[in-house]
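Q: Hi! First time doing this. I have a protein sequence and I read that you can turn it into a structure. Is that right? Here it is:
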Amino acid sequence: MRLRVHATTTMAASMAVRWFNVRDRKCRVKCLQTLEALFSSRAGVGITRAEDALKDEGEKKKTGPKALHVLQAERQAEAERSVLISCLPKTHLNKFLTYLSRHGNINKYFFYESFGTYAVVEFSDQDGLQSLLESAVVPSISHESVVPLRSRLLSLRNTSTGNTDKQSAPQCQPQRTVPINELIQRLSSSTSLEQQIISLTEAHSLTEENIRLRFLICSLVSDIAAAYFPECSIRPFGSSVNGFGKLGCDLDMFLDLDAIGANGSNTPRSGMYMEYQMKRNSSERAVTQSVLSVIAECLEQFGPGCVGVQKILNARCPLVRFAHQPSGFQCDLTANNRVAMRSTELLYLFGELDPRARALVFTVRCWARVHGITSSIPGAWITNFSLTIMVVFFLQRRSPPILPTLDRLRELAAPSEKCIIDGNDCTFTRDFHRIQLETNTESLDQLLSDFFEFYSTFLFNKMSINIRKGKEEHKPELGPLHIQNPFETSLNVSKNVNTSQLERFVSLCQESAWMLQSGGTLTTLLLPSQISAVRSRKKRKREPASERIKGLLESLRTQNNVKTK
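A: Yes, that's right. Below is the predicted 3D structure, encoded as structure tokens:
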């Protein structure tokens, strides 16, 4: 049996390199060692090599970060060689791996829990995967009306079980964030605010295993869609791939049908060509609705593990929503949503340009969720996307800027990178080598404090937030909060926010800035009771002034009464 690399053994080095590009070498080694200790405790493996990680970082500096489309292609290839297996709770790891290795070399694997115990196994090549699929049998069916669908979601029974102890049993990887109380306890052990921000970011970020699982679920759904559209592809977008996703976030999927007609040609004079019937539709939107409706029916009737399928076809962006029970993901499948794909690429670019952007976004989002500024329920709350844009805008406004403006990225784009979608200019460079950033060495704790200070004094009543230009502009329309959509510039991504929610956000920013300036830590910011205490202290400080005003008004009233007499 040959196992190349366990997924979790390489996670520490790769994620450490991705996260903290610290300028001072000693600080960099210390940060990497701290991160590797955190990763190894989560993965259940020994501490890996900080010096090797630094070597990888040196290679990354030479070549630069990978463009998102390159990274997605690699992830898709891994997913297409992978299988999702439902296992019994007491699975003997060595017997399980021995059984699978009969079919081919195993590249990576991991276990997790979601309505049962599951394993994700990636083979080294398609031959191993196909051998396993060919060995799988369809269970006996008592009702002839049931139609089984062959898929890469398998169940393994009575092969890898037995008397298992802690050493032989597989360790399940977490797929959800820790509860806020447990997170605060973890943060309390950190010695500085900056270290607390790093620990929070590590606790909330998508793990290597979770990212692999997301791409695998997209690949499984793509297998179903391919029954109707053989050359289509389904890939994740949004928080699942832009680097700002939180463990447990929804899985947004994009159905790409462009490849179907990409290789089209005129009808040949001789030879074979495919015959098909083109149904007439009134618009591209109608076509999208028809395609999604067909796939929704297939998911509902035949999709293994797909439950609660909803067709939401009259939304601004038509979609199919469903829950995938084996993974625990809430999934949204859309088509013809290319602007959202460009937004995903842009945020990924910002996160790769400076890791402080991701750390600050995770911290602000956690703070906002704890205090009820954001919510998973639709309403007048500020969304996570709006908060992310606000953080990007704040970092563009630093001196010197930490992140470039979208207009600057557009200027740096090569002619081949020009992108116009539905009349919207979505052009920006994806080549990291073209982007030269000014040196800004501000610490994370300083940036967090200044973020709260910046938005506690921002003129929301007059100005809008625009990351395309990186500066405030007069609001083009009435409304409490105006954040311009980076690509569809006529749209306000925060149009749902009402005045009371914005005022509450500003008030919390003021109180949080005061707490940090007074020596507070992240743990105090994440406790609503601490914020309430600050609010009450401020009220008590204002009481003497209000009493003086009352006294002055009372004396004026007395003087007037004397004059009238």
